[in-house]
Amino acid sequence: MKSKIFIVVLAVTVFSCRKGQFAPEHYQGGIVINSSQLSTTTLEIRLDGASKGDSLPVGGRMQKTFDFDGPAIKDGIRKHIQVFKAGTDQLVTDTSIVLYKGQRPAFRVIYNDDLGLGGFISNTGVPQDSVRIRIIYHDHTAAKKFTSLKWGLYQFKNDDPYYDDANNVKEIFILNENKFSADINVPVLQMDNSSPTNLFARIKDPSTGDFLNWLPGIGVFDTGWIQTFGQVNGGTYWFVSFNVVDNDGVEDGSGVDYYALEYTYLQL
User: Fold this and answer.
1) DSSP conformation letters of 153-204
2) Which end of the chain, N or C, is less packed with Cβ atoms under 10 Å?
3) What is the pLDDT of residues 204-236, one digit of tens each?
4) Domain extent at residue 117
5) Does 159 share its domain with 35?
6) Helix spans in the chain (H)
7) CB distance 204 to 243 below 8 Å
8) DSSP class of 150
9) In this structure, are 188 and 79 located in the same domain?
10) pTM listed for this prediction
11) How many CA within 13 A on the CB side of residue 163?
């Protein structure tokens, strides 16, 4: 019985290795999609227009592997990636890529109802001497009149006017409430290359042309952004949410309204 088994195996082996016959070339590639820990719901990943896809839980990971043969070995394959809120046809974001053999690119995606944040996120390309931030603000004042604000971000300085417009941060932009700013790269260190960044903001109401005041004689706001003691590392990407609130504790009889900033920083 043993000799019969040996003869069969030998015959197969000789046949498979016959001169001039080779197995076809076989290659693979794939994609990896990670959901941020800041997501608030399960997502669904659909490929190439499929009506159903794979579930991606909060903080979860999905991996797909594809075979490459024929012309795809040289030309690659095109993949269309769609991200939906699970159980719905609500599209969060999508992208198309050309994938080549041996590649396995990784994507990070977020969907957060509370923050109004959805899409692919990446810290790729953020220099190690900088951080990237994206800002959104909400008007939590009693009057609810700040549908749009003009922001100026500067390095802090110790004397009036408390912002240093000659240092290495000077970002000025108009932002609508509940809408994101463009990405902003902020140096980790000030122009002296030793002092950590400490951002202060000047905020103007475009409808009146008046700057908002934090305290009497102080028309700037502490943003809470102090890059020190290893709290914030270069090469990272942060979401920054500001609430503009009434500073009711300040009464100086001038009739001027005072405000404060509440802030939340989350690393994406």
Assistant:
1) EEEE-SSTT-EETTSS-EEEEEEETT-PPPPEEEESB-TTSSSBPEEEEEEE
2) N
3) 999 999 999 999 888 999 998 755 444 577 888
4) 27-121
5) no
6) 2-16, 72-75
7) no
8) E
9) no
10) 0.67
11) 19
